[in-house]
Structure formats: structure tokens, C-alpha cells
Amino acid sequence: MHSHSLDDWRHDHLFLGADHARNERRTRWVVALTAAMMAVEFLGGLAFGSMALLADGLHMATHAGALGVAALAYRYARRHARDPRFAFGTGKLGDLAGFASALVLAVVSIGIGWESIVRLLNPVAIAYDQAIAIAVVGLAVNIASAWLLHDGGHQHDHGHHDAHDHGHHHDHGHHAHDRDHNLRAAYFHVLADAVTSVGAILGLLAGRFYGWAWMDAVMGIVGGIMIARWSWGLLRDSGAVLLDTVPDPGLADSIRDRLETGGDRIADLHLWRVGPGHAAAIVALVSDRPLPPAQYKARLGGLPGLSHVTVEVNRCEHHAAA
Questions:
Q1: How far is residue 196's CA from residue 41's CA, in Å, rounded to a whole number?
Q2: Mean pLDDT of 275-303
């Protein structure tokens, strides 16, 4: 039995984004801004009879809820990052939160579209001046929220990623070109909110100056369609991560190019995302003259985003028999 310390062979599974703490703080600020504006638009839409304003308020409500879930996911992931119950850390909590929020958004988009059609068929009186004023303030809040999330959604992460070989020493590599997709999705959702606010303003202006009261309901329908499109995109992207689809086919090709040399062949390759900017790989190799796993892992050093590697090496039985 091995009697020495195993510390040199053990490692953490910290697969959080490089800007996790900063993104968490900014998300909380945007939640507060959006929740306040949501209440104003929702009450204003009810008071002044504007479906576009009510739709925008409901959209902001779903947005505030989605961002609230994202903020809680950031906090939970941070607090449980070293919890041994999570085999590969908590880096995918944001994707789980995004998937749940997307389901809610899909239901809300249907509700907004239905209510807008009802208002189109049965128009109600609208207090245009008050509704326009509230919609303009809502647009300002959306722009402020987009500014808060912009750096986190688009700035490159400059994290120090560790590549580990199961049962062997640690390698370290730098990865400078991946992003926090959870916050990036929130950023584009804020932009969608801004577009919906613009639609509400245009619909109210058309009703105010040209008497096109139907435009308000039409803009509500447009807003519902935009929410549905965003919901589908988030379901598709977050669902792909939760189902462990290959995050980057180019990275898989690079792994094969580096390992399949000198007659060595990859019999099995599993590559999946374990957090923003972090991918894990399990590789099973077959070789006529197998080398120690650490040497194969060393060939993968420097691959962007490859943070956890397990290598299994098998000697070719047919070659051994010969």
C-alpha cells in the first residue's frame, strides 16, 4: 500500500469563470434596477391601458427573475465550489439556471402574445403621455443594465486553468479567449429588453400622434415573439451544456492530432464543458509501445480551455501476441 502523502496527486475542481465574483456583483445590481423598473412599467401599463407597456413590464419581470436565478446560481456555485458532492465542481450551475429561466420565458411569451391579440380585437383607452414617459424611463434602465453587463458579457477571460492527469502530477496552462456564457446570455437579454422598450415607445407614439391605437397591441405581439426567440436560444445553448455535448469540435481535433502519432490511436474520447472557459476530457489510447499517461498528457499542454484530463493507456494485444 502507498504510505506517502497523496497531496501531490490531488487537485481541486474549481471550474468557475475567471470573473465569477465580479459578474455576480454586477448581476445583483442589474436585478435591483430591473425589478424597480418592472414594477413601474407593470403598474403603469395597468393604469394607463397600454398593452405594449404592460408587455414590456412583464418581459422585465421575467428578465428580473432570470437574472435573480443567475445571481443565486453564482452565489451557490461560489459557496459550494469545493463541495465533494459535485464530481466536477459547480461550474455548470449557471447553465442549469439559464435552462430553468428559459422554460419560464417560453410560457410568459405565450401569455403576452395572447393578451396582445385580445387587446387588438378589443381595444381599450390608453393614456399615451404617461405611458410614453414610463416607457422612456424603462429604456434608460435597460441601457444602464446593458452597460453594467457589457464587460462581463464580452471581455475575454484571462484565467489560469489547470490541466490534470488522473492519478498524476499537475500541469498548468493559460486560456485567454473564453467567456462566461451565462452572463453573456443575460447581456443579450438586456438588449432584447431595450428593443422591446423601443417597440413600446414606437407603438405609443403612433397611437398618440396618428391615432393608430392598434400599433400598441402589435408591438406587444412583437415583444412576445422576441421573448420566445430568446427563450429558444437559451434552451438550445444551456441544454447542450447540460447534456455534455462536445463544446468545441476544433479542440477535439487538436487532441487527436497531438495524441495520434507514432501508431498510437484514440479508441475513446469524451470531451465536455465543466464551466465557463473549462473543458474536461477522458481519453482512452491504444498503443503498440505505450508510454506513461503523463507523457501523453504533456502533449496536450497549452490547449486553450482544457482544464481536466484523464488518460488511459492500453497495450495492443495483437501486437503483444506477435
A1: 12
A2: 86
